[in-house]
Amino acid sequence: MVEDRITDGRRIAELLSSEVDGREDGQLASFDVRNADRDVEPTPDGARAYDIARRDDRLARVFVHEDRARLEFEAGQETAAETARELDLRVRPTATTPPRTLVFVERGADVKRATDVLQRVSRRLEDDDA
């Protein structure tokens, strides 16, 4: 039987990067992938692969594990958590200072939902700025 689910953390992060950089619709038009570590190797705790910026501000950092990718939201944490839960993505707040929200992308098929989280956080931040 052929395994057709992508569960390699590095590959998932690559797919997410392509979605963020390649799409010019909706909120994604204002996103950039920055500070990419092209030689990143997955680690049990997650290795930083790249940052996702909205205009000039870093919105999230992306980390790779062996079997998943993780977005670490620095802005819009509550919106990220709420949206990720609605979209059936695993989410966990951190007790760090400043606080962060972790959203786990465990399959390649979850990348579209992860971009939906990014877009909703971006919209909320725009509303807050208005």
Key structural traits:
Aspartate Aminotransferase, domain 1, six-stranded antiparallel sheet, alpha+beta, single chain, 130 residues
SSE blueprint:
Elements: H1 9-22, E1 31-34, E2 47-54, E3 57-64, E4 69-73, H2 77-86, E5 90-93, E6 101-105, H3 111-129
Helix pairs in contact: 1-3, 2-3
Description of the molecule:
With 130 residues, the protein is α+β, with helices and mostly antiparallel strands. It is 33% helix and 26% strand. It has a six-stranded antiparallel sheet with strand order 1-2-3-4-6-5, with helices on one face. Strand 3 and strand 4 (69-73) form a beta hairpin. It is globular and about 40 Å long. The chain starts with 8 loop residues before the first helix and ends with a helix. The model has no long low-confidence stretch (mean pLDDT 91).
**CATH-scheme architecture:** Alpha-Beta Complex
Task: State the total count of DSSP E strands.
Answer: 6
Mean pLDDT level: 91
SSE run: HEEEEHEEH
Strand order of the largest sheet: 1-2-3-4-6-5
- Shape type: globular
State Rg. Answer: 14 Å
Number of H/I helices: 3
Which CATH class is shown? Alpha Beta
**Fold-level CATH name:** Aspartate Aminotransferase, domain 1
Residue ranges: pLDDT <50 for 5 or more in a row?
Answer: none
Quick description:
It comes from Natrinema longum. InterPro entries: DUF7993. This protein is of the alpha+beta class and 130 residues long.
